């Protein structure tokens, strides 16, 4: 299993996670890992700096695309066409630039809260309006999606796997979603950034593999950003598999492509080519950390519950029984010095919830639960 860096070393980092709060706070909010970079990625980046390789990306360099495609084939049995992939700075850009081309101004886009908070802003940035179809307890509400599309929504912005719950959507539900969307001549933009962090024993299904309909109307947003902790290096990909959606790639301004980070392309290529064992070890560590959280909650804080995630390192905590109101993260931070992500950021369904980042040392989880438990009479 992978081991997190010591706290004193982590506090030397200058990213958002380590500079937002003072040193007496345990930062367990934003989705950054506390693990060291995989050595092949670190070596490749150091080598690039050493040779002064800090210029613009070559928009015709498909080495990182090929690396992802090879990984996707081995991991999920999906071989996306490299010719139908295009780089971008991050998954948010893939989402926004896709939506710009798929909706008319003001048109509705279905999202499924509680969901990754920027989805609300990305739809608005693209000129659309948010149509909320809340998740059921452990599945998409496909009947409600059907009604929303019948009422004029243009398509669906899908989180696959789902953030913050860590749900891995079943292939059956995804296939049914594709049939519903096809009946309404809609589209699906599928954010699959957490897919490489699918836990052992679970099967992730790329949206573009579930049916001919999905391939016809779908766009996937993929990245190594979460898998290898590369958010600051800026690299993601559009993936399409039909002539209908290929126009989207052809219509992208060159600036969307060349704003991709060169270090991001280098790190993504190295990650998906040489760091698969590291990724597997990381998933094992994350699964162990969920076990730690389960044990600590049962022993010290049984009124707080968490549904076991099937992907990612994010735990969705139901803290409503504590009586701390709609935003329990506020009390956890103010009185316990534990920084969690506010549940209501994910939509109104997040009232009473908070999200905890478990990509850390197990001792950090033990300490966090201990601090929160100490606030409960």
Automatic annotation (TrEMBL):
GO molecular function: transaminase activity
Domain Aminotransferase class I/classII large span(s) in chain numbering: 100-372
InterPro entries recorded: Aminotransferase_I/II_large, Class-II_PLP-Dep_Aminotrans, PyrdxlP-dep_Trfase, PyrdxlP-dep_Trfase_major, PyrdxlP-dep_Trfase_small
Uppermost EC category: lyase
SUPFAM superfamilies: PLP-dependent transferases
EC number: 4.4.1.13
Cofactor(s) this protein cannot do without: pyridoxal 5'-phosphate
Keyword Transferase: yes
Domain of life where this protein originates: Bacteria
Keywords, sorted A to Z: Aminotransferase, Lyase, Pyridoxal phosphate, Transferase
Keyword Electron transport assigned: no
Matching Pfam families: Aminotran_1_2
Family: Belongs to the class-II pyridoxal-phosphate-dependent aminotransferase family. MalY/PatB cystathionine beta-lyase subfamily.
Name of the featured protein: cysteine-S-conjugate beta-lyase
Species of origin: Kineosporia mesophila
Lineage, broadest ranks: Bacteria, Bacillati, Actinomycetota, Actinomycetes, Kineosporiales
């Amino acid at each position: 299993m992978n081991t997190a860096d010591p706290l004193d070393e982590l506090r030397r980092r200058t990213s958002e996670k380590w500079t937002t709060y003072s040193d007496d706070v345990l930062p367990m909010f934003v989705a950054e890992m506390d693990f060291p970079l995989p050595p092949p990625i670190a070596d490749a980046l150091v080598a690039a700096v050493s040779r002064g390789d800090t210029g613009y990306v070559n928009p015709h360099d498909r080495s990182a695309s090929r690396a992802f495609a090879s990984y996707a084939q081995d991991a999920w049995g999906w071989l996306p066409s490299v010719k139908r992939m295009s780089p971008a700075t991050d998954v948010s850009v893939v989402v926004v630039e896709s939506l710009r081309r798929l909706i008319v101004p003001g048109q509705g886009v279905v999202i499924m809260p509680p969901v990754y908070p920027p989805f609300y802003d990305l739809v608005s940035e693209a000129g659309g309006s948010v149509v909320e179809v809340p998740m059921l307890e452990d599945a998409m509400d496909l009947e409600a999606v059907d009604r929303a599309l019948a009422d004029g929504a243009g398509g669906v912005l899908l989180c696959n796997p789902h953030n913050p719950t860590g749900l891995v959507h079943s292939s059956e539900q995804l296939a049914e979603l594709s049939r519903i969307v096809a009946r309404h001549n809609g589209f699906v933009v599928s954010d699959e950034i957490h897919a490489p962090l699918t836990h052992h024993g679970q099967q992730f299904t790329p949206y573009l593999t579930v049916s001919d309909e999905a391939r016809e109307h779908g766009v996937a947003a993929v990245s190594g950003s979460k898998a290898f902790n590369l958010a600051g290096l800026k690299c993601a990909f559009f993936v399409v598999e039909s002539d209908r959606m290929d126009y989207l790639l052809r219509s992208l301004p060159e600036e969307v492509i060349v704003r991709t980070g060169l270090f991001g392309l280098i790190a993504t290529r190295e990650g998906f080519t040489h760091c698969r064992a590291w990724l597997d070890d990381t998933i094992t560590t994350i699964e162990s950390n969920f076990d730690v959280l389960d044990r600590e909650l049962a022993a010290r804080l049984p009124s707080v519950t968490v549904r076991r995630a099937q992907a990612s390192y994010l735990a969705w905590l139901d803290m409503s029984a504590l009586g701390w109101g709609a935003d329990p993260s506020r009390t956890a931070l103010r009185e316990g010095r534990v920084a969690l992500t506010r549940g209501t950021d994910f939509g109104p369904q997040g009232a009473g919830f908070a999200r905890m980042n478990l990509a850390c040392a197990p001792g950090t989880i033990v300490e966090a639960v201990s601090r929160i438990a100490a606030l409960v009479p």
